[in-house]
Amino acid sequence: MTGKPASHSEVIMTELVLPNDTNQLGNLLGGRLMHWVDIAAALAAQRHSGKVCVTASVDEISFHEPIKLGHVVHIHAVVTRAFRTSMEIQVEVEREDPLHGSRAHTSSAFLTFVAIDQYGKPLPAPPIIPETDIEKRRYEEAAIRREVRLKARKALEERGG
Ligand SMILES: CC(C)(COP(=O)(O)OP(=O)(O)OC[C@H]1O[C@@H](n2cnc3c(N)ncnc32)[C@H](O)[C@@H]1OP(=O)(O)O)[C@@H](O)C(=O)NCCC(=O)NCCS
Fold first, then answer.
1. Ligand 1 — pocket residues by CB below 6 A?
2. CA–CA gap between residue 71 and residue 28 (Å, rounded)
3. For residue 85, how far is its CA from the centre of ligand 1 (angstroms)?
4. Whose CA is nearest to atom 19 of ligand 1?
5. What pTM value is reported for the model?
6. What is the total count of domains within the chain?
7. Could you tell me the CATH number of the domain that includes residue 133?
8. What phi and psi, each to the nearest 5 degrees, are found at residue 95?
9. What percentage of the chain's residues is helix, strand, coil (to nearest 5)?
10. Of ligand 1's atoms, which has the minimum distance to the CA of residue 153?
11. Which helix (H) or strand (E) holds 108?
């Protein structure tokens, strides 16, 4: 299967935080952000594979800073590496105060997506061709994260979890 450059999968999603996206403090709901992160990652996986993709797992996601009503949220997603049928997607979130122009990084997450056919069966994903130094680093590190992920899953299954 022919590989594709990592940059081909890049997605930048921009959202404005509206009243319906916030909690009682006027901060963006964590669940709303997770929804946007999932959508951006799905778009990156689908752009790379050219297939419908489903979320297989989401690694830890942390929220370093609150995002306020009226702020702009920039969600950047890119496929770091494709394995057999699964792809790892890195998502970075930045908030922007549109009145002052200041920006701050607020969250990072790694998600695994799988390309599927019309019966829900996993399909092979094209390899990623990392080109820049940062893409090459992400590509190498993706194999380490996958090993940790699969080991943890296996250990928990063996305990009957
Ligand atoms: C994800 C899914 C397609 C995997 O199907 P499966 O029959 O278990 O297939 P496999 O065991 O062959 O796994 C396929 C790939 O997914 C990976 N995978 C499966 N579960 C995973 C998990 N929890 N975390 C990370 N990777 C996972 C496997 O390692 C494998 O990767 P590889 O082909 O690159 O080696 C299937 O479990 C599914 O449809 N899940 C529901 C998806 C969904 O509805 N998501 C939305 C959540 S509401």
1. 54-57, 83-86, 112, 114, 116, 120, 122, 149, 153
2. 9
3. 8
4. 56
5. 0.96
6. 1
7. 3.10.129.10
8. -105, 150
9. 35, 35, 30
10. 23
11. strand 103-115
Domain enclosing residue 151, as ranges: 4-158
Rounded Cα gap, residues 149 and 7, in angstroms: 25
Q: Which pLDDT does position 161 carry in this prediction?
A: 67
> Could you give the 3-state DSSP secondary structure of residue 155?
helix
Burial of 70 (0-12, 13-18, 19+ CB in 10 A): middle
Residue 60 confidence (pLDDT)? 86
What's the gap in Å between 93 CA and the centre of ligand 1? 25
Alpha helix ranges (H) inside the chain: 30-49, 133-158
Does residue 21 sit in helix, strand or coil? helix
Residues of the chain with pLDDT under 50: none
Placement of tokens 């695994």 in the chain: 112
Residue 106 to residue 32: CA distance in whole angstroms = 14
- pLDDT tens string 127-155: 999 999 999 999 999 999 999 999 999 99
What pLDDT is recorded for position 1?
Answer: 86
